[in-house]
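#help-structures
NK: newbie question, is this the right format to request a structure? protein is Phosphatidylglycerol--prolipoprotein diacylglyceryl transferase
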Amino acid sequence: MFPLALDPIAFSIGALKVHWYGLILGLGALTGLFLVIREGRRFGIPQEFFMDLLLLGVPSAIIGARIYYVAFTWDEYKNNFVDVFKIWNGGIAIYGALIGAIICAIIYFRYKGYPFWRIADICAPGLLAGQMIGRWGNFVNQEAYGGPVHETFLRNSLHLPDFIVNQMYIEKDLAYHHPTFLYESLWSLVGIVLLMVLRRQRVIRAGELFLSYFIWYSIGRFFIEGLRTDSLAFKGSDALASFINGLWSPMKGLGFEAGYLNPNYGNIRTSQLLALLIVIAAILLIIIRRMTGAAKAHYSDPIVSTKQQAADPVLTEQEGKPEHNAPAPPSAHNHPPLEEEKKEH
């Protein structure tokens, strides 16, 4: 007797069915918001600013994620356009979500008068937190899993609890599969800790925490994507495919096998190639911004909205500090750790 999969519907209100997928994504968004508000408070940025950002950013991210996914799987939707809007059945791409969210953020930050890179740095750990929790929506939906594995690998090698092992049994395949959702969730958890440590370093400048988020996430995504069996793909040159497979080959040394990719569908996983390009672009941006002086501000420097300055010409950096008379962050010349940073866990 094989294990039964979890019901993707959490509860129903009349004819309305509430899916676990949506609830988990909502929990991820709220967790990320909590981390962002907590950090933003140290710079005197009101929590309403981030709450409005969430209200605008989540729909933008969902739209971007869905457009990205549908664009690469158009053959599945062109004859049944209504299914494009059924996001509760899964089928969203994280890179599309980031594109949608970043476009929204650029417009919103500009409207509010805040520098994009400074606020993006504050948001970086929150983005990873949202992704870490959101991946469990894939778990409930039994999607975004890896290639087949033996049950003993999940129980004895990974020592996973029964509820995860049972959910990794995919009935249509009559096989257990790699819990790639879990791999990515744990990678994101480590990334959150790493970013929180990095932001306490005096050498970190504007934009570098946000770019570090992209570097960390994309490295993990490159290797985890190679395990999946549902990757978006395209047909590219054999040389490029061989290069990507060669970079991924250390995973074989760890005992992992690449997930099956139908050669008629493509020979290059889109997310793997995009992950490589993002890592390269992020590293180059950090170098270029340092060399050109575009990253003069440090992470710990005060953040002041240009709209505030326009409304009050005598506004100084000291007035960028939080209310309740908390001390303002130090100047860019001395960079001692912020007082509240010392209390971070």
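mod (FA): yep, format's fine, and the tokens are attached above. Residues 315-345 have pLDDT under 50 and may be disordered.
NK: thank you!
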